[in-house]
TrEMBL record, chains A, B:
This is Methylthioribose kinase. The lineage of its organism: Bacteria, Bacillati, Bacillota, Bacilli, Bacillales. Its EC number is 2.7.1.100. NCBIfam families: MTRK. GO terms for biological process: L-methionine salvage from methylthioadenosine. Pfam families: APH (PF01636). Substrate binds at residues 233, 340. Keywords: Amino-acid biosynthesis, ATP-binding, Kinase, Methionine biosynthesis, Nucleotide-binding, Transferase. It comes from Bacillus mesophilus. The keyword Amino-acid biosynthesis applies. The gene is mtnK.
Amino acid sequence: MTILNQSTYEPLTEDTAVKLALQLSLFDTDAVLKCREIGDGNLNLVFHIKDEINQESIIIKQALPYAKVVGESWPLTLQRNKIEANALKVAANFVPELVPEVYFTDEELAITVMEDLSHLEIARKGLIENHQYPLLSKHIGTYMAKTLFHSSDYALDPKVKKEKVKEFINPELCKITEDLVFTDPFFDHETNNFEEDLLANVHDLWNRTELKLEVAKLKKKFLTNTETLLHGDLHTGSIFASSDETKVIDPEFAFYGPIGFDIGQFIANLLLNAISIQSQKREFLYNHVSTTWSVFTDQFSSLWETEGVEIYTKVPGYLEFTLQEILEDTIGFAGCELIRRTIGLAHVADLDGIVDHGQRIQAKKNALLLGQTLIMNRKNIVSIDDLLQEVRSVIQND
Amino acid sequence: MTILNQSTYEPLTEDTAVKLALQLSLFDTDAVLKCREIGDGNLNLVFHIKDEINQESIIIKQALPYAKVVGESWPLTLQRNKIEANALKVAANFVPELVPEVYFTDEELAITVMEDLSHLEIARKGLIENHQYPLLSKHIGTYMAKTLFHSSDYALDPKVKKEKVKEFINPELCKITEDLVFTDPFFDHETNNFEEDLLANVHDLWNRTELKLEVAKLKKKFLTNTETLLHGDLHTGSIFASSDETKVIDPEFAFYGPIGFDIGQFIANLLLNAISIQSQKREFLYNHVSTTWSVFTDQFSSLWETEGVEIYTKVPGYLEFTLQEILEDTIGFAGCELIRRTIGLAHVADLDGIVDHGQRIQAKKNALLLGQTLIMNRKNIVSIDDLLQEVRSVIQND
């Protein structure tokens, strides 16, 4: 069988995945390869292939032509594999130490062969298990500053930037976010999924016209603002971590969008973890939020000053205006993420994993309340300290 | 010679243009065709072909692979012909009565064969000759409401909209606007072109940091906001008119951008005409500005209410927010247009044609002052009456 010569898509098996690895000469000729499919089967096949002689290993990720979430299934473009591979390559130009190395891609087969990171943990899982990852926020702040700056009009020739906007047009994956983050949770929609005890809170939320108006503005920004190339799904489940390493994976939702979206999703997922644990243990997460923002702004500002090609980056006040707008967006998008992870289709284990019923419901109420507060007050929160003060004041009542 | 069988681009001549018209069977078989090239030779060839027997006529427009402006020449993509033809076809879906009919296009030859509109006048030329075009603003308000609404996320499935964003990515033509409208006039750049007597005013303008900051924000919006498919160059030179007809031509700058850009350019060019004539004759132009906005908002609002597919169009306050944002952008973009048409590379005959030196300089100073005022005050001008009051107060001193 010659996988690489075939011209039509076909899902790999553990056998054909090994054959592909051999064809690509990614292992020694005398390697003894062991292959396991380790994906969750919802969106992608993920093959872990290891040479049992020298312990070297790789990952082969292959997109499936459908998405399965909570029993539902709908067709989904294989193109997302190309988007993901290209986004990983773009990021590798600026933060090679923070993304997996890509060894090989094949658009037809929708596969990416890349570095195996299984010595690390998924950050969400680790955070739930009380791992603190002291370097997580410094690394993610750096990842965001560098990737978000370098793909923007601040740093690129506008013609080059527009070709990249075109390359990363990603309608199907964006639609998932438009529906599941910005729309369905704010209306009585069948995709929503929440516990009975939240019904009154959810109805209150659905009845808040002024909240919907603010979400409309945030959704509009997501739909129409091509500020830079985003990861597009930068929650703690898209990050591998250890005490000294951090790697951002799975940018299949990458597209040109507003900078605050990536930052907001990451911060919201730190806050979802904070909400799910005892209040006296939250301080390290608040520190992560604070460090994320300060590292991001320090490095973004430094790049702006030294590598900005847009002439207006030299005009006093423009950087400050841009950072203020990013902060406002960050807070608003974080608010949407908090709400949709509590009552929308895709939940987080941080909240759902709380065993005690009363504690879990209280945590979810806190998430809903904090989400709404952030969306409504985002223009008045002008620093990361303000944000943390707001967070503390909303969720102290548990 | 078989024009349509050739596979490489070649500029048409009057002879080959006629042969093409015959091949396309656009005239009777016994037609006696007369052809004249009537373009200005800067960007496109324009052939006017007429059957001398029945007086029927067509236009063949062919893009040239370069742009010539004020003696300079630079290469320019032929792709713009395809953009223009496709934009005309999109507009014809919504306002067929306000654009020329397209009979044929050929991407390889970069030609569009279309309705001959030479029974009409270019609106700029007519306005300079004191023609008032009573229906101009009603028609352009309608054109803008319908074209700008129907290509936006308010009206389109977001996946369809993103494919259109991709189709209309237009880096080279956008770059011309980015440079000549938003950048060069605000810096001491070699493309600028202004009269000696304006030197002090221009230096004042270049020294205004707070002005540059506001222009930076407007340029950012132009660079990053894909609200809808714009005409992209909607000044009075892109409009054919008579007392009862209006036709919008030349959308080769079409791309997905902010709604206020088209409206701002049109209104600015009405104001440039107003500035160039005696104050007591300006009222009909102010009425045109007012009618443009009221017709646009009435029809846009009606479409929003009846044909909005985005669920948030049903949320109270979102339409009002959107219109307010469009007005603010309109005023800011109009300010940039006033300035660049006075001191930038591409002037307008309204101002340059004022014979009396003193009057011309005063008019240009008024244009510069009004442009800056609109840019700086755009957030405080919350209605079209406010705008006209501001205009009157700035340019009354002549």
